[in-house]
Design brief:
This protein is α+β, with helices and mostly antiparallel strands. The chain has helices spanning about 1-15, 30-40, 65-80, 80-95, 100-105, and strands at about 100, 120, 125, 135-140, 145-150, 155, 160-165, 170-175, 180, 195-200, 210-215, 220-230, 230-235, 245-250.
Length: about 250
């Protein structure tokens, strides 16, 4: 799995925006723990495929694994508006969705040395669990403030932290000042309700937050700007007015 992370980062540097891999490896049937941790990594790539030596159906690995599998896949469904917008941004600017830390932080020396974590789009930092049975790992965070996606805990960047995974077996952190568009869980992407989305705001410094949205029926990428008002956030100059009903929430 660690080799796949290096491969994905390298592939992106060759000019490919979209990349995926065989979750769990291809030639052998993975152990449930490895399969679960690998899936946590796999959902944070442009497209996710559980492909390889059968069986790969989650129910073949027991109820506990199936529950973890369901939670992990549902997380990607909830994040699909973020994924779709970041894909559009990558297509427009020629950036990889899976990118080394140094792509966004070229002046940070340590970001050039890290090869087992990556940025998924511009706002999410993903650190897969690489050790057998791992539920936490040491993570390097580039300069700035970062928020644990699962717990909401805040960490200062430019240093290493020990960070635990939540219910989904992967460590994910969010850049401070980011607003992530999210949707309700559905059975198929065909059923996503793009008319009702949530903006989950991760910001403790400053009074502004930004995000991206791209609605499939128009294909135009829009930047979202939010301003802190009291204890909440207000969306300014909504580019999707009349087409999306937004719910704005904190981390």
């Amino acid at each position: 799995m660690a080799a796949e992370i290096r491969a994905g980062i390298s592939f992106g540097l060759c000019g490919f925006s979209f990349w995926s891999h065989d979750v769990g490896g291809f030639t052998d049937v993975p152990e449930p723990d490895l399969y679960a941790r690998w899936l946590g990594f796999g959902v944070f790539t442009s497209h996710t495929r559980c492909h390889g030596q059968p069986p790969r159906e989650p129910w073949e690995f027991g109820k506990e694994f199936t529950d973890v599998f369901r939670r992990t896949v549902e997380l990607k469904y909830r994040l699909m508006p973020y994924v779709y917008a970041q894909a559009a941004d990558c297509a427009e600017r020629g950036l990889p969705m899976v990118r080394g830390l140094f792509v966004e932080y070229p002046n940070d020396p340590t970001s050039w040395q890290v090869e087992d974590e990556y940025l998924f789009g511009r706002d999410l930092l993903v650190a897969p669990l690489l050790e057998d049975g791992a539920r936490a790992r040491r993570v390097y965070l580039p300069p700035g403030t970062w928020h644990d996606f699962a717990s909401g805990a805040t960490h200062e960047g430019g240093r290493w932290h020990e960070v635990a995974a939540g219910e989904v077996p992967v460590v994910v952190l969010v850049r401070d000042g980011a607003a992530l568009p999210m949707a309700e869980v559905v059975r198929s992407t065909d059923d996503l309700d793009w008319g009702r989305l949530t903006l989950r705001v991760f910001a403790v410094h400053g009074r502004e937050a930004t995000g991206l949205v791209c609605l499939p029926d128009e294909g135009t990428l829009h930047e979202l700007h939010l301003t802190k008002e009291g204890d909440g956030w207000k969306l300014r100059d909504d580019p999707a007015a009349g087409r999306v009903t937004w719910t704005v929430a904190g981390p």
